[in-house]
Amino acid sequence: MEKRNRYNNRVGWMMMLRLALSGGLLFATGAGFVLVRNQHVIIGNEIGAFEQEIVAFEQEIELWELRIAGVRDRNELSRRLRWAQSDLEGIDHTKVIEIKPRPRLNGPVASAY
Prior knowledge:
Structural class: mainly alpha
Radius of gyration: 42 Å
Helix content: 55-70%
Largest sheet: none
């Protein structure tokens, strides 16, 4: 004998709606996670680019500090002046006068305040 009503427990509309909602919720959660993760990666790349700019600026500052230190040295300054063919003349050390400070007086100091 053949059963006429073989599929008695069919999937109803409510079960299909529940499966669709749970699938949609799972999809939305996954998509949200991917979007947030991509945003973190983009921000991390921007931070890395800013850090590389900072390193480049620090190297440039160090280069300028070395140039300034080189110009402050008397021998380096005279070499640069000769290289630039400047009209300035070198300082003769025999003609340099050294000025010594006067000794301090131990008396009271007048103040305007």
